Amino acid sequence: MAPRDFRTRLSKRAKKAGAFLPDDLAGQLSVYFELLDRWNRKINLTALDNPDEAIDRLILEPIIAARQLPAATSKLMDVGSGGGSPAIPLKLSAPAMALTMVEAKARKSAFLREAVRTLRLENTVVETARYEELLARPELHESFDVLSLRAVRVELRTLFTLQAFVRRGGFLFLFRGPSGGESPEVVPPLRWVATVPLVEALQSRLTVLQKVI
Fold first, then answer.
1. Residue 63: which of 115, 14, 126 has the closest Cα?
2. What percent of the chain has pLDDT over 90?
3. Which residues contact 123 (CB under 8 A, 6 or more apart)?
4. What angle separates helix 23-40 from helix 3-17, to the nearest 10 degrees?
5. From 3.40.50.300, 3.40.50.20, 3.20.20.370, 3.40.50.150, which CATH number describes the 3-211 domain?
6. DSSP secondary structure string, 56-75?
7. In a 3-state reduction of DSSP, which class is residue 27?
8. Do 147 and 170 contact (CB within 8 A), yes or no?
9. Looking only at Cα atoms, what is the longest distance across the chain?
10. C-alpha distances in angstroms, 132 versus 6, 76, 118, 166, 175?
């Protein structure tokens, strides 16, 4: 898709989803999507077969979810970053926020590093590791204001492990589809805060959990 065609399509999809995109943000998102499309032809990063669905899921979902970021958010960890969504659009929406992307597969990590370089993202780190491996690094414990995760199904054990990276009072952002209940099963130190709709065409939702103790 040519950049001009993408910008036009992005503008239409954003308007339909009720998302406002300043020109500079739309330009950066266009560069990101073009890079993603180019790399996707060589390695399988994510599904881009349906352009409208790809824009809605990879671009607009995180842009809309960024409205839920607390004003004081300074550090975000994204787990299983893959093709860079939701992490990169979230970062572009809040450029002052430090970002750590965690991706176990080396080729996907290479793409993420190229995206960081191309978009000139400051205070952005790519960790090529499973998130469980990062538990061995004490400096990462309770270090992040928000942790984001795109997952169809999140097990209680996974949530309990991930909360170790989140400071007390911080949040987990779970990007979810239409299936499942309003809230996943949680136990202390986590509590369910809200589940908010993202893109109506996808019936996607953001579930927000808070670490309270």
1. 14
2. 83
3. 97, 98, 99
4. 120
5. 3.40.50.150
6. IIIIIHHHHHGGGS-TT--E
7. helix
8. yes
9. 49
10. 37, 17, 29, 14, 20
Count of residues in the chain: 213
Its pTM stands at 0.95
**Best CA proximity match to 37, nearest among 103, 87, 101, 84:** 84
Average predicted confidence (pLDDT) for the chain: 94
Confidence at 152, pLDDT banded by 50, 70, 90: low
Q: What is the pLDDT of residues 67-94, one digit of tens each?
A: 999 998 999 999 999 999 999 999 999 9
The domain segmentation of the chain, as residue ranges, is 3-211
Pairing state between β 75-79 and 144-150: parallel
Q: Classify 197 as helix, strand or coil.
A: strand
Q: How sure is the predictor about 1, in pLDDT bands with cuts at 50, 70 and 90? A: low
Q: Give the integer Cα–Cα distance in Å for 176 and 127.
A: 23
- Cβ–Cβ under 8 Å, residues 167 and 211: yes
User: What beta strand segments (E) does the chain contain?
Assistant: 75-79, 98-102, 124-127, 144-150, 166-176, 190-197, 205-211
CA distance 18 to 79: 27
**Residue 163 DSSP class:** G
Q: Angle at CA 152, nearest 5°, toward 147 and 158?
A: 50
